[in-house]
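Posting here for the record, re: adenosine-5'-diphosphate.
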Amino acid sequence: MSLRIGAVLLLLITLGLSWVLGGWAGYRQVEQESLEESFRYRQLVANELNRYLPIPELMAEHPLMARALQNPDDPRTILDANEEMQRMATIVGSSDVYLMDTSGLTIAANNYQQEDSFVGRRFDFRPYFSDALASGDSAIYFALGLMSGVRGLYFSHPVRADSGEIAGVIAVKVLVHELESQWHRPASLSEAEMVVLDQSGVSFLASRPAWLYRDFSGGSNGALSLETRQRYPERELQPMQIAQLGRPWGLSEQSAKIRFHTPEGNQEYLSVRTPLPRLDWTLQVMVSTAPVLWTRLGFVVAGLAIYVGVLLAWLYLRERYRREAELALRGEQLERRVAERTRDLEHSNQQLLAEISERERAQSELRETQQELIQAAKLAVLGQMSAGLNHEMNQPLTAIQTYARNSRRFLEKGAMDMVDANLSEIISLCDKMAELTRQFKVFARKSEGPPSVVDLRQSVDAALKIIKAQKNSAGIDIRWNRPEQPVMCHGDLIRIEQVMVNLLANAVQAVEEREAPVITIDVVPVDGHWRCTVRDNGYGLPGNTEQIFEPFFTTKSVKQGLGLGLSISRQIVDALGGTLTGRNRSDGPGAEFVLTLQQREATE
Ligand code: ADP
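Prediction output follows.
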């Protein structure tokens, strides 16, 4: 808001200043041209005066003049003088040349032959006569001719007798209207006027006829003197209605602004007054102030243009500065933000690194724990199986014992073939036991190395051997629908075997009470996987089937189970990239567990 007020204020100041400066420049130009014209005109008048000034003196020295004055009654001498004056008038181009005696009476004149001849007239009241007489030197005067009423410049000089006394005065009249016609208005100033004023302020030369013989003094002289009235006989000498408007700023003292009140209306002029040489004349050049208005308007337009230019430049610079500042600020903000982000990123990076190492540590701990759990579970299974194993081992041991005793008896009797047959039995029993223990040894060992491509059938075979060695599996119909082709999958023989042992052991426990216990194992390919299903016709799963995969979930007594088998099995299968699910059978009583593993090519 204040900016707008400032701009408006500045505009007003600019306009005001332009107006004032325009006025100054306009008036200065007008004044300058007026002064130049005044100077020229002054020179012109000076030349004119200088031309005529020495002439009466030269004429006065002519012996004829003094002679005529001394012999005014001698017609011969007077005639000579008249003729001489006529000749002189013709030579110098003046209008009149005449000779007066000391009383002011004209005794000879160039116009002696004319009707209105000066001869016999008295001009003692004319200052050019009295001045020359009094001073004894040349005199100049301006007046209207008494007879002709024509404006004239009078040059006079005393005529001295041989004795040196003043005997009379010779006068030369020169017409001045030519001075008027030599006035030229300055080329660029259309409304330029001029008046030449005498010492009383009365105009006797004017560029406008209406301004001739007017009183330009503005009443400052008071009533015009008698001499002035005599100078312009029969003229009214009406005062001009002039209002003084003061001097415009920056102009010289001879300049002033004036206003004429005329019947046609008021007109304003810049008036420049300059004194003319020798005489008490004043040249007043008046120029219409109208061009000043145009100069002023020109300055105002220029000022306005400068103002607009400056304003636009200022606005542009301000906008540019604002944008630069904004850009710098944005750059700073950006840098700050980048720095903050970088800090944040570094921080979160460090956090991430810490988390990663923490996770790696946790994972390795988990792996170790898993391994330990698997091992613990295996040992638990072994523990559970130990009772059955005991039975399994005792039976062949008892049989071996019996065969050995019988053999001894047969040996005593010499029945060598019977001994041989018994020994064969013993060997086969020992082989069986060795095979059994070997299976357990394999089961108990820790798995090593990464998963590879294995035949699923082998793991099932090995698991079945362990299961069948248990006492409680006797009498159960275990149907292993063994595929003829290898079932190659991504896995680990020992781990898959462990899973199968878990599933089969649970199935055996579930069908123990059944009248016709049946466990079925099938392997079929489905969408790039092998699906191995273990079904039983036991008591089935409890309500929440997912719960059975949780660690330590069991429905069995402490001797029978720890509740770890299925949870460990699932972890094993997950780690191999497969799945393990359990549900109750839809086609009858009992549960079914489905193990899927990724198919692989045999060559892999
Ligand atoms: P455990 O056998 O030591 O109890 P598991 O994790 O192997 O531990 O089994 C968890 C539970 O799942 C068992 O207690 C049992 O209730 C149930 N379960 C597992 N297999 C079967 C099955 N074939 N038939 C019925 N229930 C089963």
